Amino acid sequence: MPELVEQMYCSQQIVIPPKFPYILKRYCKAAIKTQPYDLLRWSFEYFKALAQRRPPPVKLRLEYPVFSTEGGLTRGCLKVLANQLAGMAEIPLPVLKQAWEGFCLDPQELRRILCLCEVYLRKDTVPFLHFLAVAGGLLTKCLTHTMILLCESLTKEPDGGSAAIPVSEFLVMYKFIAKMDAAKDVRYFNGFREGEAPDPESVPEEEEIQEQEELHGDTSSDDYWTDSGDLQKLSLINDHVARTTRLSVKLMMPAMGRIERSPSMERLGQIERDNYLMERKGRARPSEEVDRKLREISATLMSSTEAVPKQGMVAGRQMSTTSGEFIVQHIEKEIMAYIDEQIAILPDPDLKKKKAKPEEVEMIKQMLETFLDENMDIIVPEVEEVEEEEQPIPEITIVYAVPGIGPPVDLDIISEFQDYALDVCKVQADLFMPRNIRHFLCPPLEKYDEHKYELTPPHTPKKEQKVPTGGTITD
Fold first, then answer.
1. Which segments in the chain show pLDDT lower than 70?
2. What value does the CA radius of gyration of the chain take, rounded to a whole number of Å?
3. CA distance 69 to 279
């Protein structure tokens, strides 16, 4: 008990800052005017902004009746966002996200706005006027009302004034949303509109730096090309050769792909076969029928060798060593059987009875092994198993139709209104205001759909109005 008594505080020990009631009063007023959806989250953003000496997310006045949208954005929020982000031509996305979350707005709505601005997952910044123009289009029903709202949001004049803004800013926003097609729902895949593909010419910075290093090489450690005054530049076609001492090493590297045998190797094999036939006693005369059968058997063997790798690929995608050895043994067996058949059809009966010597059989086997070893890549091509890369699932964003922006406006309408705005601002200190849009001389900002009225011919008999006879007619 004595310990608890010592820890008790009295009113004199609790110190309240003198400005605390004033801070609490301002906080209550801000919460009443803003009417945040999430009071706890908004309170965190409010005091965080005060600590960082930033404009807090507080509306100028209470909006009544509350103008609600799907994402929670209102005209009062748009006005405050314009004041918070003013002064930045390009808004960093983290700063924009922080200001957006300050009002507890829907992050999906911000993603749709960035998709319409063509910066989502593509750039790190968004133009201030582009963002404000698209955000204002979410709060109106037509393009004309959107431009009036933007004037009221960007103006520095008090409420009830002319809401004038510089004509240059007005035309930048108008041209951007006038050329935009937001009349129907569109899906965006990783920030790109459906039907559009990324620009293939756009290479990431890391890849560009790597390519430049490969092209220019390491010039700091280059000793051979120090004196390049007398050298001449040769133009190479589709080939980038680094000017380094490693050039000779690269040139000595084996070529990739199929290597054709030189004619000298083919001639050497032919000479060995001719010498072997010359050594045999009673060699037979060359026959066209024998040559034709030899070509047929060689074609059959080649087709069988092509079929076996396909089966191997179907079974396991890669030719195993066992299947390759099986093909080699099969070819050896077929060639030896063919030699025995040729010996059997020789006209000399002595050769039929005579068996090949062991050294001759060994020489033939050695020739076969050498030939198969040299041409193994051609007979049984090695197929590397390529791992299929999993394609990442694209991030799909559905952007619903925005009536405040609508379909793209014709270029002649844009040009006509631009001439009018530039002409009017000459007598208004290069300012443009909503009353100029409402003027009867102002050309339309967008294309209106004309309603077709049904006209009745003048001699068409009018329909008689019948009064019900039953019952009682009352007032």
1. 1-9, 66-68, 199-269, 272-273, 275-329, 342-356, 375-388, 450-475
2. 43
3. 100
pLDDT digits (tens, 9 = 90+) for 17-46: 899 999 999 999 999 999 888 899 999 999
Of 89, 154, 79, 153, nearest to 125 (Cα)?
A: 89
Q: For 113-166, what is each residue's pLDDT tens digit?
A: 999 999 998 899 999 999 999 999 999 999 999 999 999 999 999 888 899 999
Nearby residues of 231 by Cβ (< 8 Å), 6 or more positions away = 225
| Nearest alpha-carbon partner for 115 in 70, 171, 200, 182 | 182
pLDDT per residue as tens digits for the range 284-317: 455 566 566 656 655 665 555 454 444 444 444 4
CA distances, 261 to each of 213, 264, 268, 294, 365 (Å):
36, 8, 11, 21, 21
Provide the token pair at 20. 């605390």
The answer to whether the bond into 56 is cis (omega within 30° of 0) is: no
